[in-house]
């Protein structure tokens, strides 16, 4: 179920474009900075990875990220059933 939610978020984000030339450039908000994660500890989580991916890397010319890039990330927001973890994306 968690994979389906993440996939739905990624697909929804892929459908959105960034028309603002003033947005942050790639790499300004790397995964693991704690943004978007429920823990705030600064370590990379699935939530921080997805938020960074959607915010900084959703462009038509970038290839899809391989599952191995995020398969081992902890998911405290999913485990804790935090339904607001991805609210900043919507």
Element-level helix/strand string: HHH
Instruction: Count every helix, treating DSSP H or I runs of 4 or more residues as helices.
Output: 3
**Percentage beta strand:** under 5%
Biggest sheet record:
none
- How many β-strand stretches? 0
Helical content class: 25-40%
Flag low-confidence runs: 19-40
Taking Cα atoms only, what radius of gyration do you get, to the nearest Å? 13 Å
Number of domains: 1
Distance between the termini: 20 Å
Could you please describe the fold and organization of this structure?
The chain has about 90 residues and is an all-alpha fold. The protein has one domain (about 1-15, about 25-90). Helix content is about 35%, strand content about 0%. The chain is built from three helices and no strands. The protein has helices spanning about 1-15, 45-55, 75-80. The longest helix has 14 residues, at about 1-15. The radius of gyration is 13 Å and the shape is globular. The two termini are about 20 Å apart. Residues about 20-40 have low confidence and may be disordered.
């Amino acid at each position: 179920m968690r994979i389906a939610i993440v996939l739905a978020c990624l697909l929804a984000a892929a459908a959105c474009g960034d028309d603002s030339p003033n947005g942050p450039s790639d790499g300004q908000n790397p995964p693991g900075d704690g943004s978007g994660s429920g823990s705030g500890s600064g370590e990379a989580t699935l939530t921080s990875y997805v938020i960074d991916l959607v915010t900084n890397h959703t462009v038509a010319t970038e290839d899809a990220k391989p599952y191995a890039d995020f398969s081992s990330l902890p998911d405290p927001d999913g485990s804790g059933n935090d339904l607001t973890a991805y609210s900043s994306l919507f």
